[in-house]
TrEMBL record:
Residues in Ig-like domain copies: 24-110
GO cellular component, one term: cytoplasm
Superkingdom per UniProt: Eukaryota
Lineage of source species: Eukaryota, Metazoa, Chordata, Craniata, Vertebrata
Organism, as annotated: Oryzias latipes (Japanese rice fish)
Compartments in which it is found: Cytoplasm; Nucleus
Family as reported in the entry's similarity comment: Belongs to the protein kinase superfamily. CAMK Ser/Thr protein kinase family.
InterPro entries: Ig-like_dom, Ig-like_dom_sf, Ig-like_fold, Ig_I-set, Ig_sub, Ig_sub2
Keyword line: Cytoplasm, Disulfide bond, Immunoglobulin domain, Nucleus, Repeat
Membrane-spanning residues: none
SUPFAM superfamilies: Immunoglobulin
Protein name per UniProt: Ig-like domain-containing protein
Database matches in Gene3D superfamilies: Immunoglobulins
Pfam families per UniProt: I-set (PF07679)
Amino acid sequence: MKPGGKGPPPPEEPFGGFKLKAVPLKFIKKLQDIVLKEAESIGSSAVFECEVSPSTAVTSWMKDGGNLRESPKHKFISDGKDRKLHIIDVQLSDTGEYTCVAKNAGKEISCTAKLIIQLDAKLLAGLTANAGSKIELPAEVKGKPEPRVKWTKADLVLKPDDRVSIDTKPGHSTVTIAKTTRDDTCTYIIEATNSSGRATATVDVNILGKTNE
């Protein structure tokens, strides 16, 4: 450098002397549980949504600990800080725990929520039959996990005997009463329970004709 010359200018401090701090990775809004009634949920859609900061975070989705891939069934939406998972054509098999995993600058966080489909039980609106005939009371019972089913008549648990049979299979339960009598006139209740709750349905049975012997 020549005498009296000027040297190179000192390096500038970025942004007026302030250094940028890394934005902490966090969920501004976490996932919330979704509870659907079985009768309304089948065939509909469900949406999990959360907000993550910074908006540049890379997110992925999991169900019950397994990775989800985007497909016609599962749609992933990323818009700024918003992250959404659309579940199309909801079925009972879609119940479970869903997790959003966010990664940024070597760090990883996650939040989890459940999709719950409430139990549903359906019975006939009512039944009238003649004494001596055989009647059937078919019920639809849907839920996951598979619910436990109990039938009652006049507040007493209905149990199989020489006239009464109860056939319970996944999704259905049917009470069959042979050689009906006037004493079979009553309100019958089916109760289904599992870890997601309880559902009941009732049917009024009216037996007409000869009196009991």
